[in-house]
Structures are given as C-alpha cells and as structure tokens.
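Re: your question from the hallway

Yes, I did run it. Sequences:
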Amino acid sequence: MAAVTIYINGQEIQAEDGQTVLQAAQAAGVHIPTLCHHAAVANWGGCRMCLIEVEPRGQLQPSCTFPVSQGLRVQTDSEKVVRSRKFVLNLLFSERGHYCMYCAASGSCELQNLAYEYGLDHWLYGRPNEAREVDASRPYFTMDHNRCILCRRCIRGCDEISAVHVLGIGKRGAKSIVVADLDAPFGQSSCISCGTCLQLCPVGALVDRKSAYMGRDEELASVKTACFECGVGCGTVARVRSDRLVRIEGDWDAEPNHGLLCKMGRFEPLRVTARRVHSPMRRVGGRLLPCSWEEAFAAIAPRLAGNTVALVSSRATDEEIAAFLETFAFGRVALYGGAAAPAIPGRSCGLGDVERASAIVALGVELDDEHEVVASFVRRALDRGANLFLLGSHAAKLSGLATQEGDLSAASGLTEALTGESSVVVLFGPAATAASLETLAGLSNARFLPLHSGTNTAAALARGVPCQAPSEADTLYVYAADDPAASVPAIKAGFVVAHATYHSALTESADLVLPALHWTEKLGHLTNIEGRTVEARRAVAIPAALREDRDVFASLRSVRVQA
Amino acid sequence: MAKPKIATDWLGGCAGCHMSLLDIDERLVALLDKVELTSSPITDLKVPPASGVDVGILEGAVNNDEHVHTAKRMRERCRVLVALGDCAVFGGIVNMRNYFPISESLRRAYVANESTVDGVIPGSEDIMRPIAARAVDKVVKVDVYLPGCPPTAEQILYVLSELVEGRIPKIVGEELKYE
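Structure:
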C-alpha cells in the first residue's frame, strides 16, 4: 500500500492508498458520524450521514465510500456538511414512526444518538400515519418495519456474513421495506435465525424478544467468552445485568467466527426451561432430598472403589477434563454427550480454509442444526464459486447448492473431479467412515477438518478419553455439566451419581446428585475442532452454596483417599 | 416591574410532564417569587387570562378538536409558547393511535375493553371529536421545544429560568433526551 497525504479539516494526515476517507479519518482519530456503515460489512454509502465536503469545489461525498487520493482536501464539519446531515436526519425521522419513548432500542440507538449529536429538539417534517407491519413470525426476534431506516446493514450481513441471502428490499420508493425471500413472513422464509441482522441493526427495527426492555447498552456488562453449544468455539459477548444473562452477541473480533453465531449459540441458551439443581441431593426412601456437600461426599466415598465408570461431559472445559481424569484415574472413563469424527487422515486445516476452498467435501456431517456456523463458511465458499459435494451428510439447507449429493460410498468416485481443484477441504463428522476418508487422503490438494459432535470433544480426545463406555459398573459417575437435556446412559450400575446443572431424566434416575456450574459461571478453556484454544470467562457469579466443578473433583479425590 | 406571567395547559398527555414540573420541589418556591403562575390544570384557575401571559406551556399531543381550540387559545394568549414533553414536541406515545382508524381505536377503548360490559362509544355533539394525533407545532407555532418523556425537573427549571431572564433556551448536548 502506497502512502498518500490528505488534509482533513486542514490537518495533514498520512493515509494508505485504497483506504476510504472514513477509514483514514478514523485511523487519525477524526470523528465522522455514520449510520449505514458497519465495520463487519461492505460499505454502501446509502444513509448520507458521513457526508464530507471535498475541496475546492465543495461537493458532498459519503466518506465511507470516497477513496483517498494524494493531496485530497476535505472538510468533515463545515457548515454545509452539518446542514446536510441535519437535513438527512430530519428526512429519516419523517419517514416512519421513530418514537423513542416506547422503543426497545432507546438508549442504544444509533439514529437517536445522531439526533442528540445534532441537537434535533423537534422534527421539521410531518409524521406519516401509515402503519407498517410488525413481523413477529420468528420465535427469537421481531421485525418492526415502522422503525426501519433501510440502512441495509441486515441485508449485507445476511449476504456477506451468514451468506444465506434471505434478505432484500421489496417494493419501491417510499414503500420500500426489508423482505425475506419473495416477501414471505420471516418465520416461514428460508431465514436460519442466526441473528446476524439483529446484531447489525442500528435502530429498534430488529428486536430480540428475550432482552427487549431488559436494560440498555450502558446498563449491561459485556464479558467476552466462548460459546458452549458445539465444537466450533465461537467467540461471544455475554451481556449481563445483576448476575443474570440477558443476551448473547457474537464477538466481532473473535476467531474463528468474527461475530457470526447460530440460533443454538445466540438464542437457545436463553430458552432453557430445565430447573436448576441448587444443592447436593441424596435419595432417601425413593425421593431426592437436599443434603450438605459433606453428607454427599461421605455417601459417595465408599462407592469410589471397585468397578467405577465415570463419564465426562463434552461441555466440560479443558481444565475440568484434566481434573476429572485425575480424580477418576482409578476407574474407567468415557465421553458423555459427544461423538468423535474419525482420526484425521491427512493435513488438517481451519475454518478460514473452508471459506477459501475451491471444493468442499462434506462426509457424514450434520450442518443443519449442529454446525450452522460451519455451514455459513461453506456458503461463503459457494459464493466465491466453490464446488460442494455432500456425501452421507445432513445438510438440507445446502442441498440444491451442491455439485453432487450422495452417500459415503460415492467418495471413491470423487478423486478425479477433485484432482484439478486448487484447494479441497474435507469436512467429516462422526458418521464418516475410515474407508470414505482413505480414498480422499490420497489427494495432495486436500485438507481435513473434523466436525466432532459435542462441545469440547476435541479436548477429551486429545487426553485419550474414549467415546465408548463399558456397559456395566458398580458405581456410575455422570458429569453431565450444564446439558439441559441430560439423558440416562445405557450402563447398568448399582449406584449412580449425577453431577449436573439441571434436573433431568438423568438426575431423576440418580442415587445422588451434585450441582454443577452453568457455562456463564465458568473460567477455563475449550479446544475447538480446529485445535484452537478459546477462553471461557466468568460472566455471572457462582450461586451461593455451589462449588466449582473442578473443586468438586478435587474433594472427591481426597475423600476417596481417606476412605 | 410586574412579575412575568406563566400559564400551563394540557392536551392529550398523561400529566407526567406536569408531575415533573412539580418535581422541581422546594425550588418552586424561589421560582414563584420571580413569576406569577396565572393558571394551570393543577391550580384553581384553569384557563389562561384573556389579558395574556408571557410564557405559555402545553403538555400533550393534539388529538381532538377541543385540543385544537386549547392550543390556539394558548397561542393567542402567550408571547412565548413552550412544547413540554415528547407528546407536545413529536406527537409522542399518543401517535401510536394513528396506526389504526379512529373508529377502531374508539371501539377498542369503549367496547372491546377487557373491563367493559355492554360498552357504548360516546357520541354526543357536546363532547370533543377525536382527530389524528399530532405534535403541537402542527397546529400552532412553537417557540421552545423541551422533549423528554417526561422532561426532567432540572430541564424544566432551566427552561423557565432562562425565559424569566428574557432568553429563549435551547436544549442541546447531554441535556437533550427523548425519553
């Protein structure tokens, strides 16, 4: 990049060729107001809030799309610029029902902030009384067209980030509205509810049902942490208030997702209805009754001998797995709530390589509900012209976009088609067979990414935890962690300990229950499917009377030695 | 010199802005040393004097023909007119009604109301007739805008103090709030 010199408000600034004036100004700390601009999506230049005056002729240009050039002179706060921005704001407010006093976005609205910045104590133009639709057909978030400013951030996010291409503009002129598909209700459209548009919306048009009116931006703390819903390990921002999780947002700065989440990571964790286990419980006369930690440990101690099978949740952090393995080294351990893809047969790769691949082979993977973020990486590759081969995979939403679909046995017939590709990424899941992988392992241009089932399955595998559990045990210890639908493993056991966050079928069948922490209460790390270590940070204080899962394992270790 | 005269009235509002006016608390006493409050909905005298006042204050949106009359009367009788609160400034929460036909709003309020049995929509010629809700400045000229839902007591005191000193205030910067 060649350096160019530009002058912003007379101040000499070194910029890089290829930058926009907005980028150069932001780098130099010069404030230019924006509205339709968002760093995560391409610039559009539609809202005209970032107008600058280009000297010497005084043309007004949007700084988000205007490129820098040697010797360029611009004014960002001239009288003409300020007058134009106020005019734009007045037009925006005159278009739809932007009434702040009953809007969920009030206090965290970019349009409102600009009106404050430019001192709009009233609106110049009349209000339209035409009611526009409120689309509440989606379970997670609503779309109020009365508050939309048509900035198209949602559309650009849908195209560029989740790459599902659901959103667009329908109708014409003043009647233009954001539509899904060919103007279908959002809930019946091809929308996958990833919530990228929701996170990009600068106003109160797209509103999260759970967190609406639960606190403004400034009242919610932000804790950067990791998603526990699958093995991708997306970076999230937990928004919390008074030790309660209010909302989950994608972390724009985090690898590998850069802000993208899926419905399982963004919305479902706030919809868990299972009851929390608040204290240790012992079965007395057929009923589970609360007891102290010491009573619980005393009851378990004599059981930690002989044929003990201990299952560790795939939702456990790296540190919890390590502590668990230390405690249960005397018994037989296995993975709970996860399934491993076969061993990587060749060179491994990351999710960034999926996006840049010229061909993608999906072998025995689940991309519809379990790995939707991975599906978006695949879609971005498809947008760049990649070929997709879906073999033995569940990916109904990608079906139709694939060059070829079939079962795993078709893998052997692919080598010829793939030889000419510049880069091939093979995504393979627990259902992939070693045979199907072997045929592709011979390709020199192929790299492999395992899509294990479960959250921290990669870490468990790296520490030698097997997926298959024995079928019988004297004592069965199930560390289910915060799996809200923990099931009863098919293991015959004389005494069952459930170490779980929620009441479930598992706790109902257990002889003793220990409370586990929720992911928002944990400090630790996860190992994602790429082998990347991601950090989980504590967003919410540990409830009174509960103990860190790691400390529980340590206590069990000491009571066993004493016994 | 005679004290400056102030009159207030309300239109389609919730009285919250007048509550905020009362929230000026003990500082009201000092303010009333400097001004004469001739009339308001919360004093004995309700109607601004025909002889006129220096400052007229209106709360609420204009949403029936009686409000149009009240707004015009205040405009005629005051030198400086203040639109107090979001409903007076923007139309506010009252504007939600405009998304539905007036007949539908009346039916919802008087007939389809959960607590109403055998409801009847009032229809005498003697009572006001509803119109589409609008900001005060869509009916009469407004000189000072004080948005907020409600404006804070501090903002109201600031605006009145400036007016008493003969200055026309404008709310800007951190003080400007729509809620």
